[in-house]
Specification:
This protein is α+β, with helices and mostly antiparallel strands and 465 residues long. It has helices spanning 13-20, 41-52, 77-92, 126-129, 136-150, 179-193, 197-205, 240-243, 249-263, 281-284, 287-310, 316-369, 373-379, 381-398, 402-405, 409-464, and strands at 3-9, 32-35, 63-69, 98-103, 110-116, 209-213, 221-225, 238-239.
């Protein structure tokens, strides 16, 4: 986590909430959520004050404003939102109303969380309970760093850890065109095809990749593309962790497990819904707060009922079936995107090679014709060495009669442009599916939580009777 801070809000609470929810900063509200309060800034501010009025000795602090900024582009907006909600849940322990928003309008994705300074559980202030001795920022930083480490992200105290990397499904356009990217693609593809880790070890070898797994060693897993040697003729290996956090042995196991869950229509993600658990004692002892919570739950219930109606879903079973079908659609699309990206990278490699060949060939031809080769080679050593390396690669790629088999550079560039456009269209389709899944999963979680709340309240009513 690159940066965390927290400061009190003493005036203009509504304006502070309105600022963090700005549509131009949050993809038109896509990356906005709330807990125990409305998604409308003015209503949320009033609801904060309603809880505040039930406390005593309140001081002049209305709310607290947390800010969490992630380093570079190491997280997507979706991941930042999830991590921000996880931090809010861990830091606030479900005792304070809050509005959270992820801003994507700068180079660094970052979250803002505005939360009530008064707890709706014990009606005491955050300043009294959590910030004696001005320790709130240290606790926030500690929680934030723990979450980052758990998710393989960088923290300020340990810059040597490097930036956490996400695999293709989350950042399709971030990988380079090196042999390491080819390893990543092959591993990604194999993970989606494997039933367990042992099956992965078997299947990855079928893709012309040597996988060395030594669980007792410090370096547990490393990969080698067969035939890929350094200039001394030795095999080039890459450790799983060197490829990125998601390619280390524990994460490969976790990803295989996750994909197998998705194949059966089970999501590994959890959502913080707007359903309020009214079975908590604080609601049972305050009729006003209970009435407010019941109204909010009814509003939320009407939303997911409308969602089911709009999508022509008549039962939870149909919703679950739709989720399974959509999960499978996403997995198929990810596999296609991987293959498409591989084609783009292969063409890019050849284009780069041909451009180098075209650039350095005149210099090499001049070198061949020169009588005083030693002086000319000394003046053009880099270009000559570069040309010889390129020719060596071209012979390996096209054979000794390379001149007859070299593809047309302009045609290759046009083909690559067409593939990039195809990838762009697929990416839009992918984003649409991810958003559709997000809505389905949120509806599933909301329905389950709403029914649990109703059943819990019925049980308490029966106990009273």
């Amino acid at each position: 986590m690159a940066h965390t801070d927290i400061h009190p809000i003493r005036t203009t609470l509504s304006a502070a909430i309105e600022y963090i929810m700005k549509p131009e900063k949050t993809a038109n509200g896509l990356y906005v959520n709330s807990y125990g309060c409305s998604m409308d800034s003015k209503k949320a501010a009033k609801e904060f004050l309603n809880v505040r009025r039930q406390g005593t000795g309140l001081g002049n602090v209305l709310a607290q404003h947390m800010h969490i900024s992630f380093a570079g582009d190491e997280v997507t907006p979706e991941e930042a939102m999830k991590l921000g909600e996880e931090l809010a849940e861990r830091y606030l322990k479900g005792q304070y109303q809050y509005v959270i928003a992820t801003h994507i309008d700068t180079n660094n994705v970052h979250c803002h969380i505005v939360f009530n300074n008064v707890s709706f559980e014990h009606f005491r202030t955050f300043e009294t309970k959590e910030n004696r001795g001005k320790k709130s920022w240290k606790n926030l930083r500690k929680n934030g760093d723990e979450i980052c480490k758990e998710n393989g992200l960088s923290v300020i105290e340990n810059p040597e850890m490097g930036k956490g990397k996400c695999y293709y499904e989350w950042q399709q356009d971030k990988f380079g065109k090196s042999w390491k990217s080819k390893l990543r693609y092959a591993i990604d593809e194999t993970i989606m095809q494997s039933s367990d880790f042992e099956d992965f070890l078997k299947k990855i070898c079928e893709k012309n990749i040597e996988c060395v797994y030594t669980p007792k060693n410090h370096i547990k897993i490393k990969f080698h593309i067969k035939g890929h040697l350094n200039k001394y003729g030795r095999k080039i290996y890459s450790r799983g962790k060197t490829l990125g956090w998601y390619y280390d042995e524990p994460q490969i196991r976790r990803r295989i497990e996750q994909y197998n869950l998705l194949k059966n229509g089970v999501s590994g993600r959890t959502y913080k819904t707007r359903i309020i658990d009214t079975s908590q004692e604080v609601f049972q002892t305050s009729k006003g707060l209970l009435h407010w919570a019941d109204l909010e739950n009814m509003k939320e219930a009407s939303k997911f009922i409308n969602f089911l109606t709009t999508h022509n879903l008549r039962s939870e079973q149909e919703l679950d079936s739709t989720a399974t079908a959509t999960y499978n659609k996403r997995m198929i699309l990810v596999a296609k995107l991987n293959q498409l990206q591989q084609q783009i990278d292969d063409k890019s490699d050849i284009i780069s090679l041909l451009r180098g060949y075209k650039k350095y060939k005149p210099i090499y031809d001049e070198y061949v014709q020169r009588k005083n080769k030693r002086r000319y080679k000394k003046d053009n050593a880099f270009a000559i060495e570069k040309y010889e390396n390129i020719v060596e690669k071209m012979v390996e790629m096209f054979g000794k009669e390379k001149e007859k088999k070299i593809p047309n550079l302009s045609n290759l560039e046009r083909e690559r442009t067409a593939l990039i456009e195809q990838r762009k269209q697929m990416n839009e389709e992918y984003k649409s599916i991810v958003e559709e899944l997000r809505e389905i999963e949120y509806a599933q979680t909301s329905i389950n939580e709403y029914m649990k709340t109703i059943n819990a309240n019925k049980s308490k009513e029966n106990e009273i009777e």
